[in-house]
Amino acid sequence: MESLLSKENVEWREKTRAIAEEYVRPVAAELDRTGEYPWKVMEVLRENGITGLWVPKEYGGQNAGSLNLCIVVEELSRTCGGVGVSYAVNALGTLPILMGGTEAQKKKYLPMVSTGEKYASFCLSEKEAGSDAGSLKTTARKENADYIINGDKKWTTNGGVASIFSVFATTNPDRGTRGISAFLIERDEEGFEVGKREDLMGIRCVPVNETHFRNCRIPADRLIGGRENSGFKHAMMTLDRGRPGVAAQAVGLAQGAFELALNYARKREQFGQPIINNQAIQFLFADMGTRIEAARGLVYHAARSVDAGTKDASKLAAMCKVFATDTAMWVTTEAVQVFGGYGYCRDYPIEKYMRDAKITQIYEGTNQIQRLVIGRSILREATATDK
Ligand code: CAA
Asked: How confident is the model at residue 107 (pLDDT cuts 50, 70, 90)?
């Protein structure tokens, strides 16, 4: 994998790894226990020009693309999955603006996230609209020069700290997915409220909230792209670009758990020798290492496809999400097994990896939905070849 990375990729990786080792690893257990947002880490990322990595230079970012974003997320997640998503969700929150926003919206909102001054969030899911995102019920009604938003959102990652929210609402309830539009909501908007914070199994340092809209009046120029009814496509295109990031988070978690377990297996003695001397344990590491390398290869391939804008980028994004997150769940579970009874205790850092890994199989589309996206793409490609 090393030789396949550019000098720039390696530089981002080394820079982020050094930050993660110095600022994330020592506080990961504490952040998990207290649920405190990683303010200090985000500040260091900001000082090092890592916030806004995916944003073009004219909007204050680094224009470094999806592959470098994945590399950074992987390195942060290698030491803490919660920090990985705290950082990455800003990309998810700003991608709708980046891909579909007007020039004025890009100029106004992107620089404040690029510079790390403000955080962003993505509000698509609702209580009754999870996998079936197109069935969302939040409405946006045009009234003169304003829109009035009403409804409730669920699973707003970064909800407690974000200042900018990309919100999906229906402007034409009769038109299904073709009636959904995307809006920009600012935190202090009247009628907008960040509600209950979820008590999560893992990624505990990032606030995931409910968000509520009660006659929330916003100016019409907050309609992303200035056009109604293209919101669902923007949401899907955003997720196509976000999913390699979740997969990278999973690769980082798997790699981090692998390293901890390997260290432990080399030191832990039973029956008069380190447990790594047992072939059963060596074979386990052989399988873990192989699957991690395969997952990383697929994630980087998908990220390169996103950067190049290839036709199969959506399918590859879903494929890498399924493969890498299932790998992370398996590797982190086996890593706990290597630690035996100690692995089940919070005194050791390994069980957190398993808890952090679980969400990667669920958010930004469950792995069942990814398989649906992959299946539909394969069928579409086959039909196109028939013609
Ligand atoms: N790019 C562009 N357009 C797309 C697209 C894509 N990848 N996928 C679908 N579309 C378009 C279709 O072409 C179609 O367009 P037309 O109306 O012109 O025909 C339209 O969108 C509707 O598409 P479908 O008929 O395929 O829609 P569907 O209702 O069957 O749903 C789905 C498709 C893939 C299941 C989608 O609902 C989905 O991805 N669900 C999962 C949602 C999800 O990932 N939620 C996570 C939210 S984020 C989160 O977890 C919280 C967080 O903050 C981290």
From this structure: very high
- The per-residue pLDDT for range 16-75, each reduced to its tens digit, is 999 999 999 999 999 999 999 999 999 999 999 999 999 999 999 999 999 999 999 999
Report the nearest-CA residue for atom 52 of ligand 1: 157
Integer Cα distance of 148 and 138 in angstroms: 10
Rounded to whole angstroms, the Cα distance separating 251 from 71 reads 10
Task: Report the separation in Å between the CA atom of 114 and the middle of ligand 1, taken as the mean of its atom positions.
Answer: 27
The tokens describing 17, both together, are 């790894």
C-alpha distance from residue 340 to each of 235, 257, 345 (Å): 42, 14, 10
Tokens of 264: 């432990």
Secondary structure percentages of the chain, helix, strand, coil, to 5: 60, 15, 25
pTM score over 0.70:
yes
Dihedral pair phi/psi, residue 352, rounded to 5°: -65, -35
* Helices 279-308/65-79 angle, 10° precision: 150
Cβ contacts of 144 within 8 Å, gap of 6 or more: none
Architecture of domain 120-229: Beta Barrel (2.40)
Q: Say which of 75, 334, 351, 364 is annotated catalytic.
A: 364
CATH topology of domain 233-386: Butyryl-CoA Dehydrogenase, subunit A; domain 3 (1.20.140)
235 Cα to the center of ligand 1, angstroms: 7
> In CATH, what number does 2-114 get?
1.10.540.10
